[in-house]
């Protein structure tokens, strides 16, 4: 069984369409947990998820265009397994409660599109008006023309 | 093992990463012209400002007695408190973007906790560059007395960020997203 989990950051500003902040936090928290556990699986530190399903293979992160939006998807091969038999995690604080896997899937399955600009660098950002200087003034100068500048003679650049 | 960001230095030894506070920089007016002899003899009023700047030139080019450059390249450094609300870099999100390297025109410097030099986070502005004669830069450094110096590897990190910004290439026609 392949499950597609969509990352949920969104630029939708319409409050009727957008996830609530708590919903987005829940989804992001779940995805973070999932990715962390997949990493442990690869490193051999974890045999399976402590959940009502467990991962049998590695997850793959892909970005896909469809007709409606550009989605970043995390594909995970899963197979049903009983939670009580699989809780073999080695990195877990006592008392820590993981998000129930089923709830996570439900939340993630309604993920929203992300902007294409998320991965781009902002080359154009600049400070239009610099901060006021601590001290400023003017100096009166008369320029004296001394001809074109000459390069510094260098015998050996590497010395 | 500790890797401090800054050290206090004195004297006229200039190195990459030296921060010169209130360094005078000239803002040459756009009407300045040397086209005609009459213009050349004209007296101009040239504005100057005191700016905090950081040395970007390579240390090995400024070794005393073995100088390989006559002028030092400097970049403006803005204090976090100087960047007022409503402008770019006035929000925590802006600073976080720069810290992550997503805004290549800028570079964040850590706060400084050295005694007598407690400074908040600051921002190096790669779009505001100045140059001063090396001898004058040495004199300014001496007159400052103690000053702070960005230490390795943070200064190389800064230098790399500047290089990355300077060598940017914008494509007129980009490849569309896959």
Write a structural description.
The complex is a heterodimer of chains A (159) and B (178). Chain A is an alpha+beta fold and 159 residues long. Chain A has a domain of 110 residues. In chain A, 21% of the residues lie in helices and 20% in strands. In chain A, strands 1, 2, 3 and 4 form a four-stranded antiparallel β-sheet that branches. In chain A, α1 crosses α3. Chain A is elongated, with a radius of gyration of 28 Å. With 178 residues, chain B is α+β, with helices and mostly antiparallel strands. Chain B has a single domain, classed as SH3 type barrels. In chain B, 20% of the residues lie in helices and 34% in strands. Chain B contains four helices and nine strands; from the N terminus they run ββαββαββββαβα. In chain B, the strands form two sheets. In chain B, strands 1-9-2-3-4-8-5 form a seven-stranded antiparallel β-sheet. The chains are: A alpha+beta (159), B alpha+beta (178). Chains A and B meet through β5 of A and β3, β4 and β8 of B. β5 of chain A pairs antiparallel with β3 of chain B.
Stretches of chain A where pLDDT falls below 50 for ≥5 residues?
Answer: 1-10, 47-59, 64-71, 77-89, 91-115
Largest sheet of chain A: 4 strands, antiparallel
Q: Spatial order of the strands in the main sheet of chain B?
A: 1-9-2-3-4-8-5
- Please give the most extensive interface between any two protein chains, plus how many residues each contributes: A-B, 32 and 43 residues
How are the secondary structure elements laid out?
The complex is a heterodimer of chains A (159) and B (178).
Chain A: E1 2-6, H1 21-42, E2 53-55, E3 60-65, E4 70-80, H2 83-86, H3 101-108, E5 136-142
Antiparallel strand pairs in A: 1-4, 2-4, 3-4
Chain B: E1 6-9, E2 18-26, H1 37-40, E3 43-55, E4 71-79, H2 92-99, E5 106-109, E6 112-114, E7 117-119, E8 122-133, H3 134-144, E9 147-150, H4 154-166
Q: Can you describe this structure in just a few lines?
A:
The complex is a heterodimer of chains A (159) and B (178). Chain A has 159 residues and is of the alpha+beta class. Helix content of chain A is 21%, strand content 20%.
